[in-house]
From TrEMBL:
Species annotation: Phaetusa simplex (large-billed tern)
PANTHER family on file: TRANSMEMBRANE PROTEIN 33
Membrane topology type: Multi-pass membrane protein
InterPro entries the record matches: PER33/POM33_regulator, TMEM33/Pom33
Family: Belongs to the PER33/POM33 family.
Record-given protein name: TMM33 protein
Keywords noted in UniProt: Membrane, Transmembrane, Transmembrane helix
GO biological process terms held by the UniProt record: endoplasmic reticulum tubular network organization; membrane organization
Amino acid sequence: QFLMANKLDTAMWISRLFTVYCSALFVLPLLGLHEAASFYQRALLANAFTSALRLHQRLPHFQLSRAFLAQALLEDSCHYLLYSLIFVNSYPVTMSIFPVLLFSLLHAATYTMKVLDARSSNSLPFLRNLLDKLNGNQQNILKFIACNEIFLMPATVFMLFSGQGSLLQPFIYYRFLTLRYSSRRNPYCRTLFTELRIVVEHLIMKPSCPVFVRRLCLSSISFISRLAPTVA
């Protein structure tokens, strides 16, 4: 009854579980490397489907207008719909599947707990403990996802020069990264950029750091800072 009463949430729950399943079979290619590539695409397509459902839930009344597009781009679900479309037809990259896998796992765990509560307050204690541990590490998981989002930017450039990526991919991914940086709901991308900058500046200011390395890092920090969007 609980599942039927929340059909849209249940559909997203099932698609997230399927995303976790496909992502796991890509990361751990138990069925062979050829099958792993197909699971990579299935995971991203399932994530795109989930993101589209979530975006419809957040913005139910679609309008073909600039204002609606601007509003949609503020939603995290729109960001990951774009993310899935960026990588679904590209060369499989393990780094790119981790954000999809972990976000799906976190959201599926939250809804699984609701399903267990609807069934009985004491049902499946072992699964409850596992889900509690997962939710207890949510902050570390979100930081890891943000770290993946950041380091995928140079990875897309490397893929371009190695012949495994398209010319447009780095530019489209840069747009995705600016959306994540400006996210209202998830500040971890901004937090990670700040933390990485502090760590790099601390290391290069040590007397043992060569001068040319210090200048190169400071120039890189200045360049990346200019590219960062302004956040309201």
